[in-house]
Amino acid sequence: xxxxxxxYMVPLQAACPSCWRLLILAFxxxxxxxxxxxxxxxxxxxxxSEASGFHRAxxxxxxxxxxxxxxxxxxxxxSNRKYGxxxxxxxxxxxxxxxxxxxxxxxxxxxxxxxFLPLAARPMGLTISRMRAIVQGLRNSTRRxxxxxxxxxxxxxxxxxxxxxxxxxxxxxxxPPCTVPVFSLIKSWNYSTATxxxxxxxxxxxxxxxxxxxxxxxEKKINKALMRAAMQAQMRPNCTRLWIIELQKNDxxxxxxxDAGITNNLSKRKDVQLVDFVPIxxxxxxxxxxxxxxxxxxxxxxxxxxTNSVVLKETTPWIEYYYRSLESNVHYVPFTKDNVLExxxxxxxxxxxCQRIAADAQQFAYTFLSQHAKAMYVRRALVYYNSLLPDxxxxxxxxxxxxxxxxxGDDEEGGGLTLIGVMETMKKFVGARR
Length: 434
Ligand SMILES: *[C@@H]1O[C@H](CO)[C@@H](O)[C@H](O)[C@H]1NC(C)=O
Ligand SMILES: *[C@@H]1O[C@H](CO)[C@@H](O)[C@H](O)[C@H]1NC(C)=O
Ligand SMILES: *[C@@H]1O[C@H](CO)[C@@H](O)[C@H](O)[C@H]1NC(C)=O
Ligand SMILES: *[C@@H]1O[C@H](CO)[C@@H](O)[C@H](O)[C@H]1NC(C)=O
Prior knowledge:
Layout: H1 3-9, H2 12-15, H3 19-42, E1 46-48, H4 60-75, H5 85-97, E2 104-110, E3 113-118, H6 125-143, E4 151-156, E5 183-184, E6 187-188, E7 201-202, E8 213-215, E9 222-231, H7 240-250, H8 252-257, E10 258-265, H9 280-283, E11 286-291, H10 301-305, E12 310-314, E13 318-319, E14 333-335, H11 340-348, H12 351-368, H13 371-388, H14 392-398, H15 419-432
Parallel strand pairs: 5-7, 9-10, 9-11, 11-12, 12-14
Antiparallel strand pairs: 1-8, 2-3, 2-4, 6-13
Helix pairs in contact: 4-13, 5-15, 6-13
The structure holds 2-acetamido-2-deoxy-beta-D-glucopyranose (NAG) (4 copies).
């Protein structure tokens, strides 16, 4: 028998051990190519958590502009004075003995261990979910090397500020005044005077994540302005969200240019027609995205900035921590309920401007609004806060905090600390220093 025929007789696997692997690989490649061509047919928006040509801020130097434009402005009413554990203790004591503080928690940080203690015996579900995300977001960043100062601070997670300037504020008093800095998520801001009637120091939401980018080809985008929003309980009948829906029904330009709707109804009074929810990636299928405030600032804004569609933001006084770094006509296009259709029509005639603004917004969101960048923003605020309460670190050293039983490093709420326990330690600490 000739050598050639021998190899012909042996099974393929023996003769060519890598042939099977090649075959499997070929099949795999063919499947991938088919999938890619299908994706091109359907053209789904592409969501990226890491994108080339973009950069994440990872140092205080890179965040300096954000700190300066936002945080420094919040600290202005507090600087040049000193506060201390005594003041914090007195405020806590007054708060706890007064009306239930449904949105306030005490956050305790010692050696990068972070927990929150709600002030109310029965806190709102919203308080728990927002606070859990904050604590989790900060803990995540400690795993990436971020070191927080040892501290204790008050955090308000309601949709408005908590601390009003005492002079002539017509609003009903919402409990004792803030005699030490209190941190919040949203407050109002007067852009022309660069001041606020609320002295809260703003910190980020962590339950809303702004770090993904969404891409969809501009030519394929629908030439309409999309708005999907909730009907908040506190929204007025003449609010901008409902006004936009009216325009879509009754104005010929509105019918042509708007795709607006309410996706969930949290209002007891208003009767609204509900429409389907649109996931954030699918927002990128529309050229223009409307961000209109609800009760106060709309947290969706950060997510919209990450799409390669142009964001139209309603001009209102409500801000989250980073809004003062957003530049009008650079990162977004401003509108009011009176000019919304004119603004969309002007954009329709200038696609290059739209794409430039969309691209700048994506750069902004990717660089500055990641979960880690938010945690750096919090760390910087807490370092400054501690400088205003000179006995803070000495106090935290006094705080006895047993190691958690599990070795996961993630304490359950409280992690063995209680509000009453921390208050007792504070009381003793203050008494000893009398
Ligand atoms: C913390 O990290 C985990 C794991 O990566 C992630 O699932 C979670 O969403 C992060 N939490 C926050 C608030 O960013
Ligand atoms: C901002 O402050 C100025 C000066 O006090 C005032 O005239 C203006 O109405 C304020 N703007 C807003 C939006 O409150
Ligand atoms: C809605 O009406 C109230 C009073 O009726 C007014 O103060 C407010 O400015 C109006 N809001 C808008 C968005 O037009
Ligand atoms: C919104 O909720 C209110 C109160 O529950 C109700 O009267 C109204 O019909 C609801 N609207 C819709 C569209 O569900």
